């Protein structure tokens, strides 16, 4: 398994490197030099005293240049399907810059004992154990030692955490539960596991069933509870989710512990790197988590890439924008250097249509569909962007499209469920991967040729000059379903003069008989449903249109029922698209 993933990263590296080196002219950082010699301990076993589980680790230790020199320390948990050797190249690089690095396999992975805990209390207890070991056995900066060499006070220890995917989520959860963590670089982590696994009540078979569970069962010792939750997800046992999925996922969601991050006595800096084509941990849930943070320093970067691909080339030593930010972040907040990383606005986002990157103080998102977060103390989302509202209007018989107009319309249109509509999100993983790391292999559809009975299209007029959409568009639909369980897939396109649409975002929506997360589907009754597209940035070129196209199926999302259904779209004040244009 490890060899397969390494080969994949090597094959992908040229595309990643070209993007990494060519898109970041605004990020020239002043970094600590790589001038430390180091030693490496290949086999290191550390046991959690709470339950006796032993973790497999390796240790990179810089050699002091002067007697008594101390160093900041980094704890680096493995990614899903990987183990503690994953970060060997980057751990060596950090060590040469004067960091102690402890890389480890989380319980259930690699040679570590126990079962996979996915960021639960056993994982956070392991992180505390590892930090205890580091402060007691290595020269960590900020630690006060007693005359006998024992730890007298390690509350000011200069500890950071860094990881990809599972490792990014564990880094955030470790910071939530151990105040000795002063800086975090979380790469493609999750902030909200409920939203990640069950976005708008839509399970993701390829990412969750095949990669997380299927491949996870081969590579690790998975907790049987994860398979139970997955079966319930894909059987759409909606009510069971409130007894199993929600408690399990919230216990492992950083957004559930914002009060710990935001404690006024903490000295914490959090940097998040997420990817625009990541269908597993979508950028939306990380943006909502980012806005909930009230810490000493924070930033979030949105990169072109699917889950973990933008970061992957850095694991084999290729120049990489995300790892370069990691060097700067830890130098800035653990070594107290002025690297320049705090000079740019705290939000950056790649443009899918070009090599541009936008640096912003705010990125628009509407805080909706957060019923599962009720009771969690979260600061309100502070946006200074007012989106443009365009109303969906009736599709005439002579045209393939209805309108996205400045005034609300009336009337209705109906489509039926079906597997083939002419719209698509592409081949799962592959299409998004190629879209992310090339400038020309986009996901497209001929909208005039889409099925009138199984899909519906709404479009603006042609724009008079190129406009840039940056942020999270919101779609509101007034619908009457014919069944208790229905599915919609909304696609957001830029459309050229021939009607060829280039996909720039999408959003799934599943409606069921329960209203505990979203309004329920009641056959024959019209209701309004509001939901967000996936956060994006893209240009609508001069002479092109912006379009929303909706059908009822895509292979990327699990269907709630095999039975057919009809959906009627009603036009008026409740049917609109909100567009966050770049100001």
Secondary structure tally, helices:
14
- CATH top-level class of the largest domain: Alpha Beta
Count of beta strands: 26
Radius of gyration of CA atoms, rounded to a whole number:
24 Å
CATH superfamily of the largest domain: Alpha/Beta hydrolase fold, catalytic domain
How many individual domains? 2
CATH topology of the largest domain: Rossmann fold
Low-confidence runs (pLDDT<50, min 5 residues)?
A: 1-11, 13-23
Beta-strand fraction estimate: 25-35%
Biggest pleated-sheet summary:
12 strands, mixed
The secondary structure category is: alpha+beta
CATH architecture of the largest domain: 3-Layer(aba) Sandwich
Cα separation of the termini: 46 Å
What's the quick description here?
The chain is an alpha+beta fold and 583 residues long. The protein is built from 14 helices and 26 strands.
